[in-house]
Amino acid sequence: MKITPVENKVFGAVVTDVALGSLSDDDFAKIEAAFLEYGFLVFPEQFLSNEDSIAFGKRFGELEFAATSVLSNQDVNEDGSRGEVLDINSQRMRMIIGNEAWHTDSTYKPFSSKCAMLSAVVVPEQGGGTALADTRSGYAALDQATKDRIAGLSAYHSNQYSQANDLGDFPMQQADSIYHGEAYLRPLVKEHPQTGVKNLFIGRHAFAIRGLRRDESEALLKSLLDFVVSDEARVYEHKYQPGDLLFWDNRALLHRALPYDYDKPRIVIATRVAGEESEFAYSPTDPEAEVGRRALADELALLRAETNDRRYQATTASSGKAAF
Predict the structure, then answer these.
(1) What's the pTM?
(2) pLDDT digits over 70-89, tens only?
């Protein structure tokens, strides 16, 4: 097995000469150490089966969801056949397009995600990749005054907020979907539970920093995100080839999908590892949760009047939901 750091970047590595479908314990230990050091790993030409993807994911913990095509614009059936390319106005395509803004997975749930992976099956000729940004080096590069300012600050996180704010998409609220009406308070500065390294825990789902006015919160969150991605050494864009596996640490990085021609097939098989106790905010039954619900409801009411100029013009999809 060979682990090669990505050139001209402060993070990331490419792992070759290993078969993830028949991984020894010794090789897994090396991969896990590299994952914690580099933040993301690229495994070219793996062509993993769903069973292999699930087995590899389970090495890292309990799975939030396993070997699904929910982030693709075509469904893959159990027999391997494929459905039609999804309508651009369907709720799932709205979700997929929303993922083109920088984010960390599942911060809008009680447990944010530990790590995630995408296995490429069908990729468009242009676009359709995944970009990643290192929030560890981003935090380290902040001036001390900014570090002091954000220490102890927390923001709410909601996927309903991000869809509305980024796209003017207002999904139907349903308890069994990712659009559930809850907003979870999370610190702007997170300490990685395994490495102890601090990073910025921000992205599109974050809003309403507690203790700041709305305009102050929006400006601070934007400035922090802009700073992280302002240095090319902290940003990597992966162009998939069929068979590639991209694997990243949600506790240390931001990521986003890159746009493509949505009429062309893009099939990636997604597996996400659930967060552990260090990723827990609180449960919906906690008294703190009611404060988050009110903050989200107030923000959505304001966004209803502010997002008519965005892609979906403050509308709700007429078909489908994005529950996973």
Answers:
(1) 0.96
(2) 999 998 887 878 888 999 99
